[in-house]
Design goal:
Shape: globular
Number of helices: 6
CATH class of the largest domain: Alpha Beta
Distance between the termini: 21 Å
Largest sheet: 6 strands, mixed
Bound molecules: ribose-5-phosphate
Number of domains: 2
CATH topology of the largest domain: Rossmann fold
Number of strands: 15
Strand order of the largest sheet: 2-1-3-6-14-15
Radius of gyration: 17 Å
Helix content: 25-40%
CATH architecture of the largest domain: 3-Layer(aba) Sandwich
Order of helices and strands: HEHEHEEEHEEHEEEEHEEEE
Length: about 220
């Protein structure tokens, strides 16, 4: 927890008055949201957009001013976690199922800051099952095409039911074990009709902040 916390706190230092801030999702992002709320209480003036209903609810409860996407022209900085990060700062995200909104935020941000503890660093992506958001219609066919890309696709379930994303879609966790060419795989998956988005974030990270158990951080 300390590794995630120091990475989150370091990232929050990058926020200035007047910024539009994108809020990520997951446990590391939650630590960042809590720190942002402290700054807001102490006078920092920002507006924020959230990448999930959970993050939006938490931010509102903590007094962070949230604006709807319809009012956002550009985001100054988005701070978000990741499930795996490779040497090129490519990511797997979506362990919490928020990948689509997270990718929209990252794509529309001047600065996309990723915060992780050092256990998330890998030589090659793919040990963590790749989350892919798909529409529920004809999901069996979409799964068949995912399987043809040499993975084991499993529809995410919770309490014996299919888990539904904030966008009303399904999440498929694709077990690849090793992803040799993340960019090529991302394109192949996105070309399957029925796929909404993948959890591969290729070339999107501007800054990576890695926290460790000693309570220090490294910024790339
Ligand atoms: O959908 C969830 C997000 O992509 C999270 O940022 C990712 O799963 C990392 O989560 P955590 O910070 O809890 O490890």
């Amino acid at each position: 927890m300390i590794a995630k916390r120091v990475a989150a706190e370091k990232a929050v230092e990058l926020i200035d008055n007047g910024m539009v801030v994108g809020l990520g999702s997951g446990s590391t992002s939650t630590l960042a949201i809590r720190k942002i709320a402290e700054y807001v209480k102490n006078g920092l003036q920002i507006t924020a957009v959230a990448s999930s209903k959970n993050s939006e609810k938490l931010a509102k409860e903590l007094g962070i001013p949230i604006i709807p996407f319809s009012e956002v022209k550009e985001i100054d900085i988005t701070i978000d976690g990741a499930d795996e990060v490779d040497h090129d700062m490519n990511l797997i995200k979506g362990g919490g199922g928020a990948l689509l909104r997270e990718k929209i935020l990252a794509f529309n941000s001047k600065k996309f800051v990723v915060i992780i503890d050092e256990s998330k660093l890998v030589n090659k992506l793919g040990q963590f099952p790749l989350p892919v958001e798909i529409v529920p219609f004809a999901s069996e066919l979409t799964l068949k095409h995912l399987e043809a890309l040499n993975c084991k696709p499993l529809i995410r379930r919770h309490n014996d039911k299919e888990w539904i994303s904030d966008n009303g879609n399904l999440i498929v966790d694709c077990i690849f074990n090793v992803i040799n060419d993340p960019s090529d795989l991302n394109q192949k998956i996105r070309s399957i009709p029925g796929v909404v988005e993948t959890g591969l974030f290729i070339g999107m990270t501007h800054t990576l902040i890695i926290g460790n158990m000693e309570g220090t951080t490294r910024t790339l």
